[in-house]
Records
---
Amino acid sequence: MTEQHLLTGRAPAIAPADVRTVACIGAGVIGGGWAAHFLAAGYDVVAWDPAPDAERRLRDLVATAWPALEDLGLAERAAIDNLTVVATLAEAVSGADFVQESAPERLDTKVALLAEIAAAAPPGVVVASSTSGYSMTEMQTAAATPERLVVGHPFNPPYLAPLVEVVGGERTAGWATEWASAFYTEAGKTVITMDTELPGFIGNRIQEAAWREALHMVGAGEATVAQIDQAMTSGPGLRWAFFGPCLTFHLAGGEGGMAHMLDHFGPALKYPWTRLESPELTPELRDRMVEQTEEVAAGRSITRLIAQRDRRMIAVLNALAEVDRAEAAEAREQETP
Ligand SMILES: NC(=O)C1=CN([C@@H]2O[C@H](COP(=O)(O)OP(=O)(O)OC[C@H]3O[C@@H](n4cnc5c(N)ncnc54)[C@H](O)[C@@H]3O)[C@@H](O)[C@H]2O)C=CC1
Ligand SMILES: C[N+](C)(C)CC(=O)CC(=O)[O-]
């Protein structure tokens, strides 16, 4: 890799598989969760956070998460001792092969911080923001090397929820988005690489549609928080752990699948069930839904999908029941004098 390339930032400094050191800038709920994930995946982690109690909070978070991560299986050389907390941002990024930013969700903070990181990190080192919804285009405006900045949006906790949504901004180089997706995959994450910027990305847009509806119902006295959470955990949420909303509704159509589901329940989209603007269910949208759902079904018949769904629901229900029994037994032990 020529020096010129490195200086111009037109190429990554290191191959994703050769990363050894990850810098975590911002070590709160998410930054700390990222640190735990990268430590368990066998990386050295160098963290910086301006809060006076940040190191204590970070080490507490990692220590609390570590037993679960050991149960899941640690990577070779994984160790809590591979965590270093430093006193300055420059120290944290100076030797980093990758940087994960997890500062507060304020655009002015992100713009200033990403500019500072981009000025201090070695050329060609990719920098990802954990932002929940800002576009990299609006966050990279002050960075001198915007080409290496991407969004790498996790789900809480990053050491257990596998998804990370990756998308670049208008000034992000294609290699940086590709590099970030390859690195997160190497680091054990499930990666969705988005082709276009979309506020809130994918997972948050879906869950925040439900969140807005929940706030409406609670605000209007139509449902309680308890009813809403029960409705989701005992209903749709149970299925979404393994079949997303589209494949789930493919089965709502019975043998007719998504096509029948749309024909049968399509008109219901117009019912005032939700305050959200319902899309026009055009023939094009119908055909696209059917086509893409069939792709996800990947040739599995409705019967086979029903069997897979039921097997997984039973597994999740049994796992939840097992945890409930264990916690009930622990509670009884604690009550026993
Ligand atoms: N909490 C969540 O469920 C999720 C949060 N995120 C995103 O992760 C980012 C961080 O959110 P949380 O960890 O929840 O917030 P948090 O408030 O728990 O942690 C933020 C940390 O950033 C530190 N900080 C403040 N100013 C800073 C600066 N200028 N430079 C570096 N660090 C700074 C704070 O001391 C704090 O420790 C946000 O962009 C958020 O949208 C993404 C997915 C889920
Ligand atoms: C509440 N939140 C928008 C910060 C949540 C996320 O961004 C993802 C998640 O972990 O649900």
Note: The domain at 203-299 is CATH 1.10.1040.10 (N-(1-d-carboxylethyl)-l-norvaline Dehydrogenase; domain 2).
---
Amino acid sequence: MVKRAVEANFDGLVGPTHNYAGLSWGNVASRSNVNSVANPREAALQGLAKMKRLADRGYVQGVLPPHERPHLPTLRALGFTGNEGQVLSAVARTDPALLAAVSSASAMWTANAATVSPSADTADQRVHLTPANLSAKFHRSIEHRVTGRALKAIFSDERYFAHHSALPSVSQFGDEGAANHTRLCGDYGAPGVELFVYGQEAFNDAAPAPVRFPARQTLEASRAIARLHGLTDRHAVFAQQNPAAIDAGVFHNDVIAVGNGNCLFYHEQAFLHESQVLTDLRERLTGVELAAVRVSSDQVPIADAVSSYLFNSQLLASADGMLLAVPGECREVASVSRYLDTLVQSGGPITAVEVFDVKQSMRNGGGPACLRLRVVLNEDELRAINQNVILTDALYERLTVWVKAHYRDAMSQQDLADPMLLDEVRKALDELTAILGLGSIYDFQM
Ligand SMILES: N=C(N)NCCC[C@H](NC(=O)CCC(=O)O)C(=O)O
């Protein structure tokens, strides 16, 4: 019998050190906004406003905490010594780029936090979670331990949830989590098909690969995740991302495709073998027809898809079709805005478009879909999770007050060296783990 299930969205709360350091080669926005002054307070409030609007519409909305930054344990592991003030001033003086890397608030993009397989798809009928090693970028490779602790503090009941360690942190097993993973299904509680999109094969030099920008996800990593999660071939499809798209700035598949339920919304240049992907999905989807919404380059050139983040929208099931929650930038790019007007009138599965302002995150290449990790949960599983992280009116109010009390409204590269910042961050996070009932998850709390 199919259990009733929902898709919950767990958004990353933007951290107090949100800044623009240009850390992500291959991510156009990150590199174009390097050194501009960020506003962490506004960023966190924009993220909370998005969560609140979706919670108000009845979607189950959860919150994932930011990480401790700057991350002193990483600096110590790299040979910096002395007290904390001395470590910070030494790294600021000798290696400001390293200070920026260990200060990034990049854990906000929780589409990269983990890959999650719902219990309806897995061999042992538990929800499986694997934090992404994010080994392609140093600043992100230091996220997975704390991500794993946060996920265990939320999905703690072992009867329902199975946690795996991140894959080996080397490029051959580069894993970027749910940003390269889409689940298609009929009812959420029914078995679905998990589409794993990879950028490159690590152990096959002859296979196609991008030439300009790095492929962050390998086939080997995707296959390992599917094995760990106990997915059979019936439940998994592996597809290569078009290398030309990666070279055009599509550093994750969720910058060029998004799926939910039976609907796959994608750009014609998303996949290397488009028709094979559709055939593989159609063969495995049961009880429902795939509704493919294909956007051509004539309608939206790939450069416009990248600058607007059209495909980094959230695709959400609503009572009368699919709702596309787009970033405001989509209305600033003429081809995309025109396309969206025709989309809702086309009679297709996407029946509504709503605009969300997440500009602070967008300037680092993170749209609405980057900011959330989707977890399909049946009623028992939803009841079993830590309820303190579910966004209610009261939690929204509390977090808004918390952000206003602890966050600065300007963050430049120079500010990262301020020893006061580390104290501010820890004080804020200590309070946050109490609000969210997470216990001790940060290194400074251990
Ligand atoms: N597409 C998804 N799912 N996520 C977007 C992640 C953006 C992130 N940007 C950054 O890490 C930039 C940080 C800086 O430059 O300061 C990244 O490139 O990994």
Note: The chain has a mean pLDDT of 97.
